[in-house]
Structures are given as C-alpha cells and as structure tokens.
Fold this protein.
Amino acid sequence: MNKNNQKPDIEIIVTDADGKERKIDSNSILPVEQILPNKLNIIAIQGRPIFPGVFTPLMVSSAEDVKVVEAAYEGDGFLGIIMAKKDSDNSTIADLYEVGTAARIIKKINMPDGGINIFISTIKRFKIRKALNKTNPIFATVEYLDDEEDSTFEVKALTRAIVSEMKEISDNNPMFSEEMRLNMVNIDHPGKIADFIASILNVEKEDQQRILETVNVRRRLEQVLVFIKREQELLRIQKKIQHELNEKIEKNQREYFLREELKSIQEELGTDSNGNLNDYQKFKEKIEKLNFTGEIKEAVDSELQKFNLIDPNSAEYIGTRNFLELVCNLPWQDNAVEDYNLSNASKVLEDDHYGLDDVKKRIMEYLSVRKLKKDNKGSIILLVGPPGVGKTSIGKSIAKAMNKPFYRFSVGGMRDEAEIKGHRRTYIGAMPGKIIQGLKITKSRSPVFLIDEIDKMGQSHQGDPASALLEVLDPEQNINFRDNYLDLPFDISNVFFILTANTLDSIPGPLLDRAEVIQLSGYIDQEKMEIAKKYLIPKNLEKNGLKKNQVKFTKAALSRIAEEYAREAGVRNFEKNLDKINRKIVTKLMADEKTDKAQTFTVDASDLNEYLGKPVFDESEIKRASKPGTAIGLAWTSMGGDTLLLESISFPGKNELQLTGQMGDVMKESAQIAFNWVKSYCEANNIKKPEWFEQNVIHLHIPEGATPKDGPSAGITMATTFMSLLTGKTIKKNLAMTGELSLTGQVLPIGGLREKTVAARRNRIKTIIIPKANVRDLDEIPDHVKAGIKFMPVSDVKEVIDIVF
C-alpha cells in the first residue's frame, strides 16, 4: 500500500490482434478494438450480414450456437458473426463467407424454448485465417481488417454526397426513423457512415456482403452511392405510381359525386345527359299519343310506372324496357285501307311470272273481291306445288301488286309453338312470336305475310305450331290475337296471309280448311325455255357481272338443258346450270388480262358438254314398257309429277304375291286388289287355270326402291302389269295410265292430273289412260301442255285391257 492508502497498481497483460503480448495499467482506458482476441468462436447467421458499429439483438436457437454463446459470455464476451452462403441448420466453415464482424455480447436473455436472445455490439471486420474447428462449434484464428483510406478530398466529397442523397431518401421515406437520421448525421468517420447506410438500405444480402468485404473506404463509399441512386430511382417510380393512383381515385370520386348530382338534376328535368328526354319520358309521350283505352291502357300504364321505379342496373329493367319499346313500335293506329289498282296488279303478276295463268286468274279474282268489298278480313291463300315453281316469288308479287309491305318467315321444321305465339315474359331472353315481330317490322296492320313450308311443321313437348296457327288464321279469333309475350289483344284480321306447301297430305285438316288452295303445277320444257329467256338469263348475267346480251343461248341449247340437265318440275336446277355456264365464261374472260371484257359469247347445244359436263339424263332415262309384265303409270309427288315403270315376273312356288320397291300401305292394298281382280278375270276367261296360281309366285316391283311410294292412283297400272305378264303381251308404245281400281273392276278418279300430264310429256308419252271422272279436269290443263297427247277416259278396267294390248 502506498503512502496515500491507495490501492496498489495492478499489472494487466493483454494480447494484441497481431498476437503480441503487452502490459497495460488497470487504470488505463483502452479502445475495445485493442483488446480483441485473435481467436473467435464463430456463429453463422442466415439473414443479412451485420456491419461494424451496430448495436442489435440476435436470436440464437441452435443448441450448438447456444453453447458457443454461453461459453463466450462466461469468458471475454467476444463472438465472430459471419453470414452463411446458403440457408442450413448445420453450417461448416466451408459454407461461410471469409469476412465477418467481431461483436461483444452486452446482454443475454434466456428464452422459454431453450434459445437465447443476446444484444451485441459489433466492433470490427475480420477475416478467417485458419479454422481450428471446421464444424459446429466453429472456432478459428482471425485477422482484423482496418479501413484503407487514400485520397482524403475524394472521400470527403463522396461522404457529403452520400449524406446529402440519403437525406433526400429519408425525407421521402416514412420507414426511416428520426433516430436513424440523427445517427447518420453524428457519425464522423466515412467508413462507418458507409457501413451504417449499407445496413439500412434495401439491398440484396450478397451486395451487402460485398460492401462488408470492401476495406478501401473510397470504393466502399462508391458502392454505397450506387445503391443510394438505385433506391432513389425506385422511390421516384413508387412516388409516380402513388401519385397516379391518388389522381385516379380522386378523379373517380369527383366523377361519382358529379354523376350523382347530374342524375338528380336529370330526374328533376326528365332528360338525359345530352338534354334529350330520358327513356321514361319518351315512352310516356309515345303511349299518350296512342290513346289506349280499357285493358290495354291499364296494362301499359302499369308497366310504365314500374319502369320508372326499377333500378336501371337490374335485369327486370331491360325486360320492361323491351316490352314498352315493342308496344310503342306496333302499328296500333295504322289504317288498313285497300289502295291498289287492279290493272296494275295484273301487270305486276304478268311481268314477274311467265305462265301460271290459272294461278294469276285466281289471284286477280281474289283481289277484285277485296277491292269491291273493301274488307280485307279472312284473306288466306294456300299455294301448293313442287319446289322451284315460284310460290314464294308469287307471294312477293302479290304484296307488290297490292302496294303492301311484305314479310316472310318459314315454319319448316318448327317444333315450338312459342315461335308463333311468343314466349312469356317470365323467361330470360323472352321474345314475341313471328306474327308480332312481323307487324313491328312492317309497321302496318295490313301487310302481306308469307308463311312458308307449312307442310313441314313438327310437334314436340314444347307444343304444336300447327295448332298455334289455327288461332292466327281464323278470322273469328284473330280479331283479338294474344301473343304470349305482349299479352294484349291485337287485331291481325287485316293481315293478308299467304301459305305455301309442297303437298297437302301432311297439313292438318282444320288448318287446311281455313285457306283457299291454289295448285301450282310443274313446268314443261317449253315453259322453262320461256322463263329462262325472260327472267333467268338476265338475272344471272347481272349476278355474275356480265352485261346484258353478252352471253346468248340458242333455242337448242335451252331445250337440251331442260331435257338432259334439268328435268325437275321447277326451274331451280335450270337456273343453277345457267349460273354454272356464266361462271365458266367469266373465268375465261379473267384468265387473260388482254382479253376484251366486253366480248360476246353464244352458247349452243354442242357447247353444253364443255360447260356442264355429261348429261344428267339421257335416252336411257326415258321409261319404256318394252317387255311382257311391264307397264308405265303416272304418279304425283311433292316434287311434281313423275312416271313409274312397274315390273312383274312369275316363278314356281307357293301361291303368293311379293311386293318390293318401298310401297306404302295404300299402294300395297291397291296391288292386292289388282292381283285378285286379274286372278279372277284370268280364271273366268281361261287365260290361266287356278292350278297355275297355286303353283306360282308373282313378284311386283317398282324400280328406284330407295324412294318411298304411296297413293291410290296406280291400281289400273298394276292390273295391266299382271295382265301383260300372264298373257305374254307387251303394251303399246308411249302409253301411260293413271287411275284407282276397285275390287269389282271400276276405275276410280285420281288427283294431280296436270302434274301427271307434265311428267308424261317429259317422258314422251303420246297416250294417257285416265278415269272418266277426271275428264272435267282436262279443261284446267293449258292447251300447250295437252298438245300432242291423246287422253283415253275409261270407267272399267276391261276398257283399259282393250286399249293397251
């Protein structure tokens, strides 16, 4: 003890970072960097590196790391903190970066889960020199790294630039606390400033490790400045996006309030944004002008008030709006006045159609009655005929002749009665039926409606469209026609209905009873040629871009087209062949640019093979009864008249009649009647003995077996076939017949005589045997159709036998 009773001085020996030992006085105050050990326990961290000069908590959960911390805390309190290259619970020294930060444990807190939370103060960079223990717990000899400072002026300039740029970032970023700003300003060493800023910047951990490993202060400052600039750019973009977003939100809010205010003003004024009347006001004005009364007024006013209260965004709003729009567009007040000239109407029919004199006559009679009576109710015409004879075009001509709007719709294949009477408005996407739609489109209460293909309607679980048409076409019911969608009475009795069909067989009786039937027969070759000259050729030249008379067809060419390429009842195939010829001529014109585009062409019969190829029909197509057991009959089909070649043979076997060729039930019965009559006649006249019939089979066949055949008009033809077979005689050439046979031998009347005559003429028949009861029908057949054909009326089948053999 010294003379002042003070504690004696204690001599302390410490080891420097370079491994040298030296003595220090216990009362001396030394920087902590000078007492750092040269051997450190290493803890690997998974996150970002920790820079020197930082006071921070560190969570340690690994059991091995906890032991390292406990040992260090009990000793000198120093640890080495190094970032691992990849995340792993068991890192070896090879998994660590070489440069880390030496730290001193300030405080240790034990956690309930066995881990510890330590507060460390980082002191200095170090680099691993040698691993004393490569696995956990990692223990190594280290070398401490001092900052390298070169050009003082450059370092100062970089430091000021960094501080200035960071101040801009901190002012615009709420994540920077006031404490961070103060620390940044109060740090006086450039290297420490770089370390502090690198630790708080949002930089990738690999980049932070690179800064930690940079000992040269100037280069470290340069790296940090680059990252600051990058952060500033990110902040600028973020600020721009935020500003645009705020502007958009503010604009939407401003627009919302303005729209609400404008909506209130419009509701007060009853107008839209352009100053026009809104939908409610428009509908109200239109409905008031219609002057509805009674049920219609109540129903429409109710819908109008509901429309005014419904939210425009609701689904019901659209449905109610569509209903009101339909009501306003229907011709409630249109005056159905008959305003047409009969002579002009006749001229229109003549100009639009060649031939069809009977049809034109019937239509002119119809129009004359309407004109005199001045009452157009109950006007229903049914045009029946094969395809391509002009049923639809006649409907258009009638509308043109009457100066009325024309509306056409087809019911072919229709299975849903809602197509006629509309859907109820309770269904989504409901629509009015075709009748109301047509009235809305034509804007007239007395248009001409053409309902096409009524013989092809179907039935399904959705109803029967044919039954729905009954109300539409009944003059007593359609005065108050109710469409399911409109559900209001509307008078459609002024509509002139024209129906079209190919056959009457499939049309329901009650529907057929409501119309006046006008039959349209097929065309003979001469008529087709005239139609081609007057209508088809000019129309087709224009269609293909050719000038009038640029392509001329000789009479022989047109005749050959009708005979060998287009034998059907109508003229559609004839027109298709003309179209094909004109297309090939246009192709020739356009193939060579130097060709005169106004060049004219003449098509003769000899040119048809080049333009149309080989004939579809030739002489072999003409049916001839050239052998015993054959006869030619005449039939009526929906496609027009046709000729049938009946064939029969006999062979030994059990008494039997075999029938082939797709015969219907009616035709099978006719065949059985004809066979039984012939059998009885042959036995009575000793042509064949009864034993012959017991020992032979007779087979009757109608060629073209894929085509169904039915009807009651082939009885005498079958009987003639059997008689030809049993007598071995061939019937006369160019002879055909039609007529039904009774069991007692009477020849019964048939229908479709004109169509059958046209078919016979096409097949070059010279003599036709017909029932005597059908003689009255000959007056309805034009003279040019009957020309060159001899008609032989008969009342008994024996007369037929006398004529044919």
Residues 1-15 have pLDDT under 50 and may be disordered.
